[in-house]
Amino acid sequence: MNRRQMLRAAIAPAVVLGVGTGCSEPEPKPGKVQVVDPGDVTSSPSAASASPTLPKGPLTGAPVSTPAAATRQAVAVPLRVSPATTPAGLDAADLVYAEFAEADTLHLTAVFHSKDAAKIGPVTEIRPVDIRSLTVLRPFVGYNGGPTGFLTQFENSDLDGVTPDNDSKVFSGGYTSTAALLKAAPKGGQPPPAPIDHTTDGEALATRDLAPATELTVTVSGGPPMVWRYDQAESVWAGRIGKVTVTAASVIVLTMEYRTLDVRNPSPRSLPSANVFGEGAVLAVSGPNSAKGRWRKPGLPLVCTLADTGGDLLRPQPGNAWVIYAPTTAKVSVK
């Protein structure tokens, strides 16, 4: 029995993708599916036989840039992006998690594993969403400080990282690189598990309610809409982030509650924060299709699971992915 059959046998129509973090919050009520860490896919026979020379990367399901990249630790960087920002390095990220932040800005958590980036940034402060999204992936994190409470949460997590105050050589003018981060990381870091169940045999994104799609829009009050359009010639989804156009094999929108965090040090302010634990609606686009379903992430050390409306796993095409944390007040539409 394969993974999809096992899941369907265990659940009814609604269920779940994976992301994770570290604030003290009530544990969500257990659902019908026991979600477990899938482990290191780089050691699986299917990953090893994906290519004569290059194995598949656990974050993308696609061949990595070099054989050594499959077994190395991932690195991650939080970025703050406004419409006037020109972010660097996003085109090399395997995964990008996007939280809607203050005003019209985005707080991005970019994860790099299968490819290298010579310039990543602008690097910003650590936030709870970074910890929740990254802990299950075990990356080394490059970040630029943060409120006292957020720094404490990071120190109490299982993550390790570096800031300009710790090692200024890792950063230059507010930017960093995968090479600098990997050099600064402690020895013995492990590669990430697979957070997304990519298709390996040409199967469709979903077994039910699959629909053709050419445009995905996420509209949040107080900022411009985020629009992604399918480029049929390149078989990718393209969107505008700041002043640059980025592409992704898949875009996955998770609808969830946001709450306001009041921080005092080093300066008093209120920040929106996505609660990535629990479950909710998902809308995914991959290739020329879209599908709806449910996501579920029970807690910090567990991957987030995605399922279609029939309870089968959503299986995006191999490649990089953007995971958008949309507040429940957002309008998410596809056509």
Automatic annotation (TrEMBL):
SUPFAM superfamilies: YerB-like
Domain DUF3048: 59-168
PROSITE patterns, per the entry: PROKAR_LIPOPROTEIN
InterPro entries, alphabetized: DUF3048_N (IPR021416), YerB-like_sf (IPR023158)
Pfam families (UniProt xref): DUF3048
Region listing for Disordered, in residue ranges: 23-65
Gene3D superfamilies given in the database record: YerB-like
Residue stretches of biased makeup (Low complexity): 43-52
Domain of life assignment: Bacteria
Protein known as: DUF3048 domain-containing protein
Species per Swiss-Prot/TrEMBL record: Micromonospora chalcea
